[in-house]
Design goal:
Blueprint lengths: L6 E7 L12 E6 L5 H9 L17 E6 L3 E5 L10 H17 L3 E9 L6 H10 L4 E6 L6 H15 L3 E4 L8 H19 L3
Parallel strand pairs: 2-4, 2-5, 5-6, 6-7
Antiparallel strand pairs: 1-3, 3-4
Length: 199
């Protein structure tokens, strides 16, 4: 049975002390506020309400962990770049995410979710640079809002900018890219599990 079919909410961490102890391999989802991270998680899991979605930017204020059975975890990081959230709260989120990424010894990779219509803001580029050598998938969500020609142009430009990293056009509405993304992330998790538990 596919790994994502076992997805269930595990816990929310609003402070560093709330982060769960290291466990199975994890994949973290990062991106600006309101780019569709929660919708992407729901589409990958084949569930409508696994992750709470909202039209209000900045709604996710904790790091949310989802278990894929006992084999793996998905990690939904708070969205960044939403100006109406008080500065002090933005700094708390940043410190929390920074602490998670620095301590995540079982992190198999990061999915950077970008709105296909507004990709590569300075904050996106800062995150890519900060992630360094970590394995990265750029997920261009809301691709159904673009024409086919615009999709192909964006895909080519994104691949040029992120080099060897993976890029996928994605839509939680039409399910474009869902199976492709699932397959890739399952490969990452399987490879990470083999490294963690070599025979």
């Amino acid at each position: 049975m596919p790994l994502f079919d076992h997805a269930s909410f595990l816990r929310a961490a609003g402070r560093v002390a709330d982060l769960p102890p290291p466990g199975p391999p994890e994949i973290a989802f990062a991106g600006r506020s309101n780019v569709g991270k929660s919708s992407a998680l729901n589409a990958l899991a084949g569930r409508s309400r696994l992750a709470r979605t909202s039209k209000t930017p900045g709604r996710t204020q904790t790091i949310n962990f989802y278990a894929l059975g006992d084999a793996a975890r998905l990690v939904d990081l708070p969205g960044y770049g939403y100006a109406r959230v008080p500065r002090a709260m933005r700094e708390e989120w940043r410190a929390l995410v920074d602490a998670y990424l620095r301590s995540a010894r079982t992190l198999a990779g990061v999915v950077l979710v970008m709105d296909a219509r507004h990709a590569f803001t300075p904050l996106d580029e800062q995150l890519i640079a900060w992630l360094g050598e970590r394995r990265l998938l750029v997920l261009l969500t809301k691709a159904d809002k673009l024409t086919r020609d615009a999709q192909m142009s964006l895909l080519a430009e994104t691949r040029r900018r992120v080099g060897e990293n993976d890029v996928t056009l994605f839509s939680s509405v039409t399910r474009q890219g869902v199976e492709e993304c699932r397959d890739l992330l399952e490969q990452w998790l399987e490879q990470a599990a083999k490294i963690k538990n070599p025979r």
